[in-house]
Amino acid sequence: MKFELTEEQNLIRDMVRSFAETELAPSTQSRDEEEHFDRELMFDKLAELGLTGIIFPEEYDGAGADYISYAIALEELSRVCASTGVTLAAHLSLAANPIYLFGTEEQKQKYLIPLALGEKMGAFGLTEPSAGSDAGSTKMSAVRDGDEWILNGTKIFISNGGEAEVYVVFARTDKEAEKHHGISGFIVEKDTPGFSFGNKEKKMGIRSSPTRELVFENCRIPAENILGNEGQGFKIAMETLDGGRIAVASQAVGIAQGALDEAVKYAKERKQFDTCITRFQGVQFQLADMATQINAARFLVYNAAYRASAGLSYSLESAMAKLMASETAMKVTTQAVQILGGYGYTREFPVERMMRDAKITEIYMGTSEIQRVVIGSTLIK
Amino acid sequence: MKILVCIKQVPDMESKFKIDGNGTWYDTNDLAWRMNEYDEYGVEQAVQLKEQMGDSDLTVLCIGSAQVKETMKKALAMGCDRGAHIEDDAADSHDPFEIGSIIAEYARDKEFDVIFTGMQSQDRGSGQVGILVAEMLDIPGVSTVVDFSYDDGTINVKRELEGGIKALVKLNTPALFTCQLGINTPRYPTLPNIMKAKRKELLTIPSSDLLKVACVQETSAIFFPEKKGGGLVLEGDSGDVADQLIEILKDKTAVLA
Q1: Cα separation, B163 vs B252, whole angstroms
Q2: Which residues from chain B sit within 8 angstroms of residue A18, using beta carbons?
Q3: A127-138 burial, b for 16+ CB within 10 Å, e for fewer?
Q4: Which residue, A129, B82, B126, B163, is the most exposed by fewest CB within 10 angstroms?
Q5: Touching check for B193 and chain A: CB below 8 Å?
Q6: Element (DSSP H or E) covering residue A358
Q7: Which CA distances in Å does A280 have to A284, A289, A338, B167, B175?
Q8: Is the pLDDT of residue A132 over 90?
C-alpha cells in the first residue's frame, strides 16, 4: 500500500488549484451574492481544461484519468467555489457516467462524447416532491406509444437544471411491478416539446449553481432514449448515486479545506490580549481537530475512489466517505466561523459562505441518514 | 524547426526558507517544488512557436535529481514533445558557468533554431545561465524579452530595460531568448495532455557526460537580511513626496512602466 499521489495526480492538483485560485476565486463571493451562474467560467473553462470528461476513456474523448484524479479536481474546485464543484459533479457523475455505464454504443456516441468534451452540459433528475430519500416511490410516468415514450411528471431540486442540454431522468414504466422494479431511466434533450423548467430555487448555499424543477407534460422522446433495460432504472439510479457520493464527498473535503485555510490564515494574523491568537492552545486544538478530520475524510474519499477505479465494489466505501466528509465539512466550516468570530459572520470573509455551502453536502446525493442506512444495512446483511 | 526550452525546478516561494547546514544554500527538505516562474514563460513561448510552425520539435531540458522530472512532466503536458533530464543530485552546488556549459554541451550538436530560458531563476537569481549558453554556442542571445514574434526566419522581440524603457531587436535564427514577466500568460496543462505526458520521451543523461568545466565562482555564505524597521520614509511637502514616490515606483516596480 502506497500513500502517495502519482505524478499525474500531483500535476492535476496543481493545475486545478491554480485555475481555481486565479480564475474562480475573484468572483466566488459576488456570484454567491447575486446567485449568478457564469457558464463560461464554471463550465466552458472546465471543458477547455479537459475536466468535463476526466474519468472517461480516450475513445469517448475523455482524459482517461482515474477516480482519485477526479476527486482531487473536485476538491480543488470546491476549496474555492463549491458551486463550480457541484456543476462538474452533477454533469459528470450523474449525467455522463450513467450513460457511460449503461448506455448503448449509439447513446455513447451521441451523448457521452459531447458531454465528455463539455460541448454539452448534463443533469440528473431523480428526486420528486414525494420521492426524495425514498426514490422507489417515483411517480413520474413513461408510457410507450409506438416508437416513442411519453413522459409526464415533475422532478425537483435539479442541479444544472435549465442550463444543461442532456438530462438523465427516471420514470415509472410499469405501475403493476414491485415498487423498485417498475422504474426506467431515460435520456431527454433540452428543448424537447413538453419539457420545461420551473423557477430557480432560492437556496441557502451553492447559490451560484442553478437548481430548477423539471416539468414533463406529454413530453415525447424517441424509444431508443431509454437508458439500460426497461425496469432497470432503480439500479441505474442507485449505482449512479454510489459514484456521485464520491463526488459530493470530494466537494465536502474541498469546502472543509478551504475553511481551514481561511481559519489558519486569519488566526496567524489576529491579535487579542496583546498576542497572536495562534498562541492560545484553545485555537491550536480547534485547528488541529479540523485538519485531522479533513485528512481522515480525504483518505476515505481516496479509498472509495481507488476502489471505483480498480473495478471493486465501492457502494459501502462511498457512503462512508460521503457521510464522514459532509459532516466534517459542516463541523469544520462552523468552527472556522467561530475562529473568525464576528468577522466570520460577515460576508466580508468567505467562511460564512463555506458554512452555508457545506450544509447541502449532508443532504443531496443521499442524506447523512441514508448513508447510515446504506452502511448499516451492509453490516447486518 | 528545432526548439529547446530550459527549465529549473525551484521551491514554492511561499515556503518558509531555512539556511542549510553549510550556510551556502537553503535547506531543501520539506519544501514544495514547482517550475521557475520565468521558465514557464519560456515554455509557453516555445509551445506557441511550435504551434505556429507546425512541423517542429520541442525539447524541454532540466538539470537536477530525479525529483525534477515531475516539473518536466508539466512542461510536457503544456506541449513540449520530449524531455532531456540531465541527472545531477548536486545541481545546486554548480555555479551558473557550469550550468550554462552543461546546457551548451547538450545543445552543441543538435542544431536548435531557437532556445528559450527564463530571465532568471527564482532561487539563485543570477540571470546568467541563458546568456552564457548563447555565448558558449556562439549564437545571439537576447535577454529580458517581453514580446516575441517569428516570421519566415526573422525574429522580432521587445526587451525590457530599466526605468520603463523598451527596446526592439530584430535577428535571425539560431538565437537564444531569456523570457521576462509579461511576454505571455502560461497555459494550464489540460487533463488529456497531463495524461499523454507520461507517454512522451523523457531521456535521462548523467550530468558527468556533459560537465567539462570547473566552477568559476563560489558562494561563501547565504543569509537573511537584517530586519530593518519602518521601511522608507519620504519627507518634504506633499508635491515633493508625490514626485519621489513616482520616481521610486518607476524605478523599482513595473506599476508605472
Answers
A1: 8
A2: 188
A3: bbeebbeebbeb
A4: B163
A5: yes
A6: helix A351-361
A7: 6, 15, 14, 56, 59
A8: no
Looking at residue B257, its pLDDT comes to: 60
Does the ipTM surpass 0.95? no
A11/B192 touch (CB, cutoff 8 Å), yes or no: no
| Residue found under cell 415533475 | A154
Q: Which residue type does A287 have?
A: L
pLDDT at residue number A174: 87
Q: Is A15 in Cβ contact with B194 (below 8 Å)?
A: yes
Q: Which residues of chain B have pLDDT under 70?
A: 229, 257
**Partner A contacted by B202 (CB < 8 A):** no
- Class for the domain spanning A241-379: mainly alpha
Task: Pick from B85, B191, B194, B196 the residue to mutate for testing the A interface (most A CBs within 10 Å).
Answer: B191
In this prediction, residues A363-368 reach a mean pLDDT of: 94
At B181, list the grid cell. 514577466
* Domain B2-209 part of CATH 3.40.20.10: no
Question: Which numeric CATH code is attached to A7-121?
Answer: 1.10.540.10
Give A-chain residues touching B192 at CB under 8 angstroms.
50, 58, 63-64
Chain B residue with CA closest to A22: the answer is B188
